[in-house]
Amino acid sequence: MKLVADRLAGARGGRTLFSGLSFAIEGGEALLLKGPNGAGKTTLIRMIVGLLAPAAGRIGLEGGDAELGLGEQCHYVGHLNAVKSSLTVEENAAFWCRFLGTPDAGDRIEPALASFGLAELRDMPAAYLSAGQKRRLSLARVLLAKRPIWLLDEPTVSLDRAAQGMLGVAVNEHVAAGGLVVAATHVPLGFAGSRDLELAGPARPQ
Amino acid sequence: MSAFIELMRRDLLLTWKEGGTIGVALGFYLMVVTLLPLGIGPDLNLLSRIAPGVLWVALLLAALLSLGRMFEGDLEDGSLEVLATGPLPLSAIAAAKSLAHWLTTGVPLTVLAPLLGLLLNLQPDAYGALVASMLAGTLAVSFVGAIGAALTLRARRGGLLLALLMLPLFVPTLMFGIEAVRASALESEAFLPSFLILCAISLASLVLAPLAAAAALRFQLS
Fold it and tell me: A46, A83, A84: which to substitute to probe chain B, counting the most B Cβ within 10 Å?
């Protein structure tokens, strides 16, 4: 399995953020997107998942499931948590589990919540969670359904050190199992076998 | 298919837990219909003549109140982006949410309508037609309304804009709905044609509106 970007260009609001960007990531690799604010890290991730169309070039998955689109093989964890505050932690997890995965995948909920240290908060309405706990619930989504590509946009925002470790464990297991991870970040994430991709950002007028 | 039912079930659960929206729509409907006779006076003949129109117009306005919330919550907390990566195309997502809106707004309002008909001295023969035409008509309101809800998603204070955009599209539903109720109140034979056209409008919007809403949603997500 190989995620290939070919001479990709991204633009937001008429401004070109990057162009001529080519890279390939094999299964079992993690790619860390780095670069200053506004360099186009989020734009690139949203392009991979299919929420944005590339301004030029193309992006595709070689050797994935031919019946599914690229977006359906991705877990997308963006800046927003996609957590419903009036539902409990378990109800939130159960919905994403059955919606993104298969209806009989209910046995994934328990271990996914435990992996991110949320097992004891299971019956708590999500409205009472702290920012870091909500982030953990959002990240737990990647374990609720089996998908080969994980796209994480600044996953460590408001996570404490223990939770960052939990994320590292989950990502390393996924990569070791042949999965593929693309993460935008400003801080070292401690993912094993990761490569960096530096986005320089648009040239500024002198 | 299971993802479709899952999404609908979550929306029903959310409406149930958050309360509010159903109560506001029902309260608004009750308020408008009870205040009107106070303004017009106790002329029973006049009231029973205007009853079909009043019941339908007030129902439409009450349904409009909650229409704007259809996609708003999911956009604000990021759920919409994640829903878009799921197994359903955006049109099926719009259809599931429209159906959930119909079940939580259209159906309760339809159940309340016959009770309010009593207050307006609606002719006894017209109750069946009232319920049947409203069940069919509110389906079109929820589905066509989804287009407006998706279009005005990022507009601040989009509520009034939504009403301005959508009210013209609701006129056919309104006209044939009122006509069906009025015809059966007068025991004329015009009930069936009006009711069938109303059903046709609903069936057409059931198929076409999610496609239009999906196009608007795709634009809002990018």
Answer: A84
**Six-digit token string for B119:** 């207050």
User: How many interchain CB pairs under 8 A, A with B?
Assistant: 71
At A29 the three-state DSSP class reads: strand
Category of B203 on φ-ψ map: left (φ > 0), alpha (ψ -120 to 50) or beta: alpha
Q: What is the value of pTM for the model shown?
A: 0.91
What was the ipTM of the complex prediction? 0.89
Residue with tokens 């119909």: B102
Asked whether residue A174 is domain-assigned, the answer is yes
Q: Does B10 contact A at CB distance below 8 Å?
A: yes
Please tell me the total count of domains within chain B: 1
B220 touches A at CB < 8 Å: no
- The pLDDT, as a whole number, for residue A204 is 56
Cβ–Cβ below 8 Å for B82 and A100? yes
CATH number at A91 reads 3.40.50.300
Site of tokens 């609908």: B8
Range of the domain at B18: 2-221
What's the number of domains chain A is made of? 1
A206 has a pLDDT exceeding 60: no
Tens of pLDDT, residue by residue over B112-151, are 999 999 988 888 888 989 999 999 999 999 999 999 999 9
